[in-house]
Amino acid sequence: MQINEQARNELLSEVNGLTAEHLNQKPSENEWSIKEILEHLYLMEGAITESIQKQLASPEINVVKEKPIELTVNRDTKVDAPSFAVPSEDYATLEELKGKLAYTHENLEKLVENEDKMAMKNKAFPHPVFGDMSLDQWIPFIAYHEMRHTDQIKEVKKKLGI
């Protein structure tokens, strides 16, 4: 979880102090606002945590090879968000978003604290790019995914002149 904590701290330091106006402003019609990026992140973290819990409750064993999840940070490769993680265009404040990010992160931390290490290695579910990934790889994947979107937030801030 250390990489997850580092990624979360970097994400929060990038958005701390932003006004609601800046958070909700899109750099263009086809690009996400910072608010939408943050919403996408808590939707993904929550869904991944839930999927890990479901797999841990399943008797099925699925041992898979490690995947190069560190490639997730490469923003040259575009990936469409799954439908469950597409953000809304609803207005939100930084405090609301931080609260939702804290909630999903806390649930992930509880899961990791109570994890069965062998089950985490011997169970998997599919990623749209990497294919079947072991549950223990999904934890750091969340961090790499946040790093990817922290870079996206930096790009949005630059485009918005903030």
Characterise this structure.
- By secondary structure, the protein is mostly helical.
- Helix content is 59%, strand content 5%.
- It is built from six helices and two strands, in the order αααααββα.
- It is elongated, with a radius of gyration of 16 Å.
- It starts with a helix and ends with a helix.
Give a brief description.
It is elongated and about 50 Å long. Helix 1 packs parallel to helix 6. The chain is mainly alpha-helical and 162 residues long.
Euclidean distance between termini CA atoms: 31 Å
Biggest sheet record: 2 strands, antiparallel
Give the integer mean of the pLDDT values.
95
Determine the number of helices (DSSP H or I, runs of at least 4 residues).
6
* Share in helix: 55-70%
Q: Would you tell me the structural class of the helices and strands?
A: mainly alpha
List low-confidence stretches: none
Essential attributes:
single chain, 162 residues, mainly alpha, two-stranded antiparallel sheet, 2 strands, 5% strand, elongated
Please outline the helices and strands.
Layout (H helix, E strand, L loop, with lengths): L1 H14 L4 H5 L9 H24 L36 H20 L3 H6 L1 E4 L3 E4 H26 L2
Antiparallel strand pairs: 1-2
